[in-house]
Amino acid sequence: MRITPEAKEKMIEFLDGCEDNFIRVGRQACGGGCSVKLSLGVTLDDAFDEKEDMKLDIDGLTIVVDRILYESLQDAVISLDEGKGIVVSCGKK
Description:
Elements: E1 2-3, H1 5-15, E2 22-30, E3 37-45, E4 53-58, E5 61-66, H2 67-70, E6 77-81, E7 85-89
Parallel strand pairs: 1-6, 2-5
Antiparallel strand pairs: 2-3, 4-5, 6-7
């Protein structure tokens, strides 16, 4: 997993003043009812479960990922999209 410099800068801004928080990469539900779509995204979080989560240090940022997702996120890139904000994309780029 890697973070682009622009995304790193924005995440540092998000974390400013939130000493107990970290960035979590995980699944997020979009939509509702029968049209729910799962996508990957980032959120601020402060709950870490030793059994369920992994803490990663990527370019000086603490990133937490669910252990089950970790394998599939090896090639993920966290980047900044001007229209969408911080996005997570998978696959080699």
